[in-house]
Amino acid sequence: MKVMKEMQQKPPYAMIAILFVGAFIAFLNNTLLNVALPTIMHEFDVKPTVVQWLTTGYMLINGILIPASAFFVQRFSNRKLFITAMVFFTAGTLLAAMAPAFGVLIAARMIQAVGSAMMMPLLMNVMLTAFPIERRGAAMGMFGLVMILAPAIGPSLSGFILEHAEWRALFEIILPFAVIVLLFAIFKLRNITPNSKVKLDVFSLILSSIGFGALLYGFSTAGDKGWDALIVYGTIIIGFVALVLFVWRQLRLEEPMLDVRIYKYPMFTLSSIISIVVSAAMFSGMILTPLYVQTIRGISPFHSGLLMLPGALAMAIMSPITGKIFDKYGARILAIIGLTITAAATHYMSEFTQDTDYYYIMGIYTLRMFGMSMVMMPIMTNGLNQLPMNMNPHGTAMNNTLQQVSGAIGSAIFLTIMNARMESSAERLASAAATAGNMPTTQEGLAQFQVDLGMKAMLEGINYTFFIATLVTVVALVLSLFVRRVKVNKES
């Protein structure tokens, strides 16, 4: 306890910097690849549903390993865990850069995912251990900057690199940084997180892997295969049943792999609910905005990435600032202001037209991300502050897992809403045109009419989905009224 107090008075900034850089390149590498998927699909001659496994497989490994991170963080030292994670990530990056076949590239991505899955939970636990509660907001704000900045610059950086080099350069650029971080970790990293000889319940690991893995896969493939596909609703049902059994088993174990009893703490429970709702709304914007900009407005992927960059940068810059405000005033005022701004901006996005100005879109999107920057980390940190120190690994593991799952579920549901609205709008517009006698008679005119009708229907679908996202954000705003500042629980 004395050592921990001394460390909190003078946190190990050099060591935390090593962890930050490692987490940054892991997050960056994940988003770099998204823009390159069409290029990789063409080179290896694979279908879109197959190339998507480069991101789906990565996400599945994260969904399987993050719930188990509570065990790993408690059982192994932060030094050993981080070095192991960086070895996996570096090996996966090297293999991806040299991949001679698509199957090898998928394997490389999954090896990378084994390393990156441990990064976020490990870094969050180190931050909670190294800083006293009155400085946690600023510390977690800096963590939020790393978590947000990497995905923010990823698409634009990837687009720039792909204009001047082949897709392998995306891994070749990351590789030397991964090696440097690994070497620094070997020679400079020391242990600060407490460890205990907890035992891994293998059956719990199997249940969580099936549960979270099946749910993520089911919801992630719903947009492509449709909700009526057996593989979609079948995996979702299997995942749900496995998770029910997983929770039941955790409540019966003396040393659970992921302790669900953390939900007896009301502020942590509330923070989880708000985070799930906000994550779902945030992912709607990250998917629908590029779809609107590129399909409706005809803007290139690179300039689409540039349009979204100021918003992501605003979110990253605000993260440490909101952290300091949180330390002084708590999460409630930040969440109320942030969600009010987010709801208003999302409402304005539901009114986009076929010729909305590029910079107006950029401004509204930036305002939306600015509002969200006041919510995520403060709410999450407020919830974690109520947990006893020995439950921090379980709290961070649960938060990170729910972010993965709510992102996948939110994306699938919002895309389903958009598609349903598109279909009904297309039928209504076609019927109205036929009734008014405005249907073209020539083949060329009919083709153009169908294109215009499709664009109008998609725009209505996107606008309606943003309207639903506004209502979802308002739900989070109402929930934030019940947030209260908590005192740290000193149980160990």
Question: What would you say this structure looks like, in words?
Answer:
The protein has 492 residues and is mostly helical. The protein has three domains: 1-199, MFS general substrate transporter like domains (Growth Hormone, Chain: A); 201-256; 264-487, Growth Hormone, Chain: A, CATH 1.20.1250.20. Helices cover 80% and strands 0% of the residues. The protein contains 19 helices and no strands. Helix 7 (78-98) runs antiparallel to helix 8 (102-130). The chain starts with a helix and ends in a 12-residue tail after the last helix. The mean pLDDT is 82.
Mean pLDDT over all positions: 82
Text of the CATH class of the largest domain: Mainly Alpha
Computed over alpha carbons, the radius of gyration is: 23 Å
For CATH, the homologous superfamily of the largest domain is named as MFS general substrate transporter like domains
Query: Largest sheet, described in full?
Result: none
Strand content: under 5%
**Which CATH-level-2 architecture of the largest domain?**
Up-down Bundle
Number of helices: 19
Helix content: over 70%
Shape: globular
Order of helices and strands: HHHHHHHHHHHHHHHHHHH
Oligomer: single chain
CATH fold title of the largest domain: Growth Hormone, Chain: A
Number of domains: 3
Class by helix and strand content?
mainly alpha
Task: Break the fold down into its secondary structure elements and pairings.
Elements (H helix, E strand, L loop, with lengths): L1 H8 L3 H20 L4 H8 L3 H4 L1 H13 L3 H7 L2 H21 L3 H29 L2 H32 L4 H20 L13 H24 L4 H23 L13 H31 L4 H29 L1 H19 L8 H15 L3 H10 L6 H45 L6 H38 L12
